[in-house]
């Protein structure tokens, strides 16, 4: 499967996700600079990586969400292209409006950087088919703005529609209802604060992240 990784000034997990995608798909991803106006053809997945795009100024992801290439990402997502945003990529996706809610400063006001237990809320999506619903997995986080917020009506709606992909097993950053990852209504866009690309081989301490990419590859094949 051909994939693309969007690179913004300040991205710092673009190589990590590229390595993970190549390990699973066997194909080197196209690295697409934020100033591009078009995406490569024949893609099966677009990844928005973690990092500190544009220095996290204004709000994390707010400036990146207005970069030229993101217009093309939104158009592709609207046509059903699978898009994953990890950490800063999740922040960018909420800033585009492709995903509901916002990521605010962690409730403890600290940068949280450690492995965290997550529960898989819904394994019925292309991104979570490698897991079982209710399963507990371990994936690392590294962020200062991971405190997921949405109003109660939105939270009820996304929960009701099965759009919570992952939850923290315990509160780590103040996120509403411990939400760690959300899907769009059509199910082709996932945003998550934890970093599955940092848990793809035994040397990382486990392979729970790899299962996301393997499940996705199988689901879209
Ligand atoms: N690892 C990351 O992507 C960091 C995301 C973000 N800029 C934050 O610290 O909240």
List the helices and strands and how they pair.
Layout: E1 3-7, H1 14-25, E2 30-33, E3 45-48, H2 68-78, E4 83-86, H3 88-96, E5 102-104, E6 112-120, E7 136-143, E8 147-149, H4 152-160, E9 164-168, E10 179-183, E11 189-192, H5 210-220
Parallel strand pairs: 1-2, 1-3, 3-4, 4-11
Antiparallel strand pairs: 5-8, 6-7, 6-9, 9-10, 10-11
Helix pairs in contact: 1-5
The protein binds glutamine (GLN).
Describe the structure.
The chain is of the alpha/beta class and about 220 residues long. The protein has a single domain, classed as Class I glutamine amidotransferase (GATase) domain (Rossmann fold, 3-Layer(aba) Sandwich). Helix content is about 25%, strand content about 25%. It is built from five helices and eleven strands, in the order βαββαβαββββαβββα. The chain has helices at about 15-25, 70-80, 90-95, 150-160, 210-220; strands at about 5, 30-35, 45-50, 85, 100-105, 110-120, 135-145, 145-150, 165-170, 180-185, 190. Strand 3 (about 45-50), helix 2 (about 70-80) and strand 4 form a beta-alpha-beta unit. Helix 1 (about 15-25) packs across helix 5. The longest helix is centred in the N-terminal third of the chain and has 12 residues, at about 15-25. It is globular, with a radius of gyration of 15 Å. The model has no long low-confidence stretch (mean pLDDT about 95). The structure holds glutamine. The site of glutamine has 13 residues, from strand 7. Part of the FGAM synthase complex composed of 1 PurL, 1 PurQ and 2 PurS subunits. Pathway: Purine metabolism; IMP biosynthesis via de novo pathway; 5-amino-1-(5-phospho-D-ribosyl)imidazole from N(2)-formyl-N(1)-(5-phospho-D-ribosyl)glycinamide: step 1/2. It is found in: Cytoplasm.
